[in-house]
Amino acid sequence: MQRQDFVSATEHIADWIADYWHTLRDRPVRPSTVPGSVSAALPDLPPADTDTIRAVLDDFDRIVAPNLTHWQHPRFFAYFPANVSPASVLADMLIAATGVNAMLWETSPAATELEETMMDWLKTLMDLPPLWHGVIQDTASSATLAAVLMAREKVTDGRAATKGLAGLPPLSVYTTAEAHSSVEKAVRIAGLGSDGLRIVPHDDDFAMRADALAAMIADDRAAGRLPALVVATVGTTGVGACDPVADIADVAGTEGLLLHVDAAWAGTAALCPEFRAPFAGLDRADSYVFNPHKWMGVGFDCSAHFVADRALLTRTFSVNPAYLQTTDGVTNYRDWGVPLGRRMRALKLWFVLRLEGADRLRAMIRDHVAWADWLARLVAEAPDFDLVTGPALSLLSFRFAPGGTDAATADRLTGALLDAVNRDGFTYLTRTLVAGRPVIRFQIGPMTTDWSDVEAAWTRVRTLAADLHPGVAAE
């Protein structure tokens, strides 16, 4: 591609992005795509000759764009947010253009030292322990895997890494049924098996019971198991539950287990001092992760992982062939996780924190939490709906339960309502189970959202509910 062609294409793409963001509110959140229709629109074979950038962009507009689910949409209230700010997009352009591999300090000194500094900035902004050491992983799943492997390294004194797990007592990792699925995946990858994941009972608020944790550890020791790690969550995916980190740290410290805290979504709320109460005791964790690529406007992927013992983390992952041996006395992030190759993700944090600013991010978080409170009141006051959980920060869940319906009917109607909402496309919501029964999650997180979007989505939910069941008021 010639220079002028590249400049012209980037100008076109920049205009497309600006128009896309400007028109998002007028689009459905989800497309009405039929499975297989996108692949059917693509050629069976790759081209042998070059194509024009104009043709590629036209096909993007024709095939790809109409079949996207719009995660940046102001009425995207499903899952958790994956916010992308303009500042992050600009940084990603430079990351792609420079093509830096940040595996070693010498392969790009600026990438390494920028990452070190950005992790220090996050510690300052969120009042995290100053002696922690930080690294940007791709996702919280990778950070959780790192924590499991660190615990395996420590509790087996390195034997698992050198000789394998054969001949060792079975290892145990403790969490609750509300923890993210990545915990079980990490336990499997680490070779501990699903039986090595011990599910600790939770209380009525879905928070881990520290007394039950202590009892399970004692029972496992008596049964010949080797307790290794506790994974606590601040802001679970299902309902936003928060485990009592300080109480869990007491148990982990007494029993000699590592403690990993997963705050992938909720961690960004710690930018605001008034939302830090659930993080009490966090300074005693051995590993902690939250995702700036969820609620902070830093485009995917950017997961902030902190550890108390840098040497344990690097010992767990370091493999040092001759072709990777390099300068001593510097940080080489290839030893801080599974991948060798690494993108210069810190540039996105740098751009976002400078161009968006911490105060603007705090204001957004406070708005989202306030709007979740207002929405919860509307749900609680609606005669045909039950507010089931929350709000936990900006997340709540509800059930469609018209007067006179039994539990089975309410569950069926709740599922039918969610299907109707997501077929409609005006907003996008997701499901979870609470005490074994289906509920609808509503999580406010997009940077583009204002209260009118929340209110409009709730109005549409009620309208669709009225279509499903006679006698239900539309508003």
Automatic annotation (TrEMBL):
<keyword id="KW-0663">Pyridoxal phosphate</keyword>
<dbReference type="InterPro" id="IPR015422">
    <property type="entry name" value="PyrdxlP-dep_Trfase_small"/>
</dbReference>
<dbReference type="Pfam" id="PF00282">
    <property type="entry name" value="Pyridoxal_deC"/>
</dbReference>
<keyword id="KW-0456">Lyase</keyword>
<dbReference type="GO" id="GO:0006520">
    <property type="term" value="P:amino acid metabolic process"/>
</dbReference>
<dbReference type="GO" id="GO:0030170">
    <property type="term" value="F:pyridoxal phosphate binding"/>
</dbReference>
<dbReference type="InterPro" id="IPR002129">
    <property type="entry name" value="PyrdxlP-dep_de-COase"/>
</dbReference>
<protein>
    <submittedName>
        <fullName>Aromatic-L-amino-acid decarboxylase</fullName>
    </submittedName>
</protein>
<dbReference type="GO" id="GO:0005737">
    <property type="term" value="C:cytoplasm"/>
</dbReference>
<dbReference type="GO" id="GO:0016831">
    <property type="term" value="F:carboxy-lyase activity"/>
</dbReference>
<comment type="similarity">
    <text>Belongs to the group II decarboxylase family.</text>
</comment>
<dbReference type="GO" id="GO:0019752">
    <property type="term" value="P:carboxylic acid metabolic process"/>
</dbReference>
<dbReference type="InterPro" id="IPR015421">
    <property type="entry name" value="PyrdxlP-dep_Trfase_major"/>
</dbReference>
<keyword id="KW-0210">Decarboxylase</keyword>
<dbReference type="InterPro" id="IPR010977">
    <property type="entry name" value="Aromatic_deC"/>
</dbReference>
<dbReference type="InterPro" id="IPR015424">
    <property type="entry name" value="PyrdxlP-dep_Trfase"/>
</dbReference>
<feature type="modified residue" description="N6-(pyridoxal phosphate)lysine">
    <location>
        <position position="294"/>
    </location>
</feature>
